[in-house]
Design brief:
single chain; alpha+beta; Endonuclease III, domain 1; Nucleoside Triphosphate Pyrophosphohydrolase; 2 domains; 15 helices; about 10% strand
Length: about 325
């Protein structure tokens, strides 16, 4: 695979986590990169590493700080697991991330892919880190129809010397050349690609049945009373745990309303259409503090919102600036 490694060393993208391949930076980057493009991740990674540059600072950080740094990436359980993982590493590995893949997978939030990436890129072990990019590339390169064989066959392609270069080159290939719609004309290993030779590059990899999307509609009511805004207290468990939102389908009143732009919020198997409205009631009856809280615009800046409600908050700020 010398052709592939030479291509990678010449054409690889300048990504900040490649500058310093220490295990902590690799761990943070690879978790952020799950289901998120590299260019999107760059500012999040740089902001995170500036605020929490090592295991110790992450383990000592308040959960609210960690979630705020993660805000916008989605899948917040990953951020919570990073916090749990840091505490686990401090307690069980004296603050040092282990190189052994089996030990890595004992750390909360580290599964097969992330453990392989840390072992390969930070410790130089001969392991293929198989994400969606590598699965796509190897499935085509070797015409593999069985996804379970991809890691095994990808590992066989790694050289004994500097295997991490080829391991990362496979990821780069899938991300930049061997995409869903492959750019075969630019592929450095085109002449060795079985799918290309057999004209099967658009057929592979075989796709599994997609999960059906559930579409929901919600009216979001932004209640403003004496320059304070009512928020729904975060859930303690579930997909939206620890995230703030404005009340939905809750406040029914004839008070004057102001419409904000409609937002769409997608997560897991749901696509939610949010229709926001602002109301300014003259009187507020008793509100259960166990379910709702009041915050000023300034203090809301420090809270972590779910993606759709974060955009609503921005529109609310823009609207109020125009009115003042």
């Amino acid at each position: 695979m010398k052709v592939l490694s030479d291509w990678f060393l010449k054409n690889k993208r300048a990504l900040p986590w490649r500058e310093k391949r220490d295990p902590y930076a690799t761990w943070i980057a690879e978790v952020m990169l799950q289901q998120t493009g590299a260019l999107v991740v760059i500012p999040y990674f740089e902001r995170w590493m500036k605020a929490l540059p090592d295991i110790e600072s992450l383990a000592a950080a308040p959960k609210e700080t960690v979630l705020k740094l993660w805000e916008g990436l989605g899948y917040y359980s990953r951020a919570r697991n990073l916090l749990k993982g840091a505490a686990y590493i401090i307690e069980n590995f004296q603050g040092k991330i282990p190189s052994d893949r089996a030990l890595l997978q004992t750390i909360p939030g580290i599964g097969p892919y992330t453990s392989a990436a840390i072992a390969a890129f930070s410790f130089g072990l001969r392991i293929a880190a198989v994400d969606a990019n590598v699965n796509r590339f190897i499935s085509r390169f070797l015409t593999l129809e069985n996804k379970a064989l991809v890691e095994q066959e990808a590992t066989k392609l790694l050289p004994d010397k500097d295997p991490s270069i080829v391991a990362e080159a496979m990821i780069e290939m899938g991300a930049t050349i061997c995409r869903k719609k492959p750019n075969c004309l630019e592929c450095p290993v085109q002449k060795s690609c079985l799918a290309f030779l057999q004209k099967r590059q658009y057929e592979l990899p075989l796709t599994s049945k997609r999960v059906a999307i559930t579409y929901l509609k919600k009216t979001v009511t932004i209640v403003c009373f004496k320059d304070q805004f009512m928020l729904k207290n975060p859930e303690k468990e579930g997909i939206m745990a620890d995230l703030w939102e404005f009340p939905s389908d809750f406040f029914h009143t004839e008070e004057i309303r102001y419409k904000l732009p409609i937002q769409k919020h997608s997560f897991t198997r749901y696509c939610v259409t949010l229709t926001p409205q602002i109301i300014f009631p003259e009187v507020i009856d008793f509100i259960d503090k166990r379910e709702f809280s009041w915050y000023s615009l300034e203090k809301m800046k420090n809270l972590t919102f779910s993606a759709g409600h974060k955009r609503i908050l921005k529109d609310l700020n823009d609207y109020l600036k125009q009115e003042l």
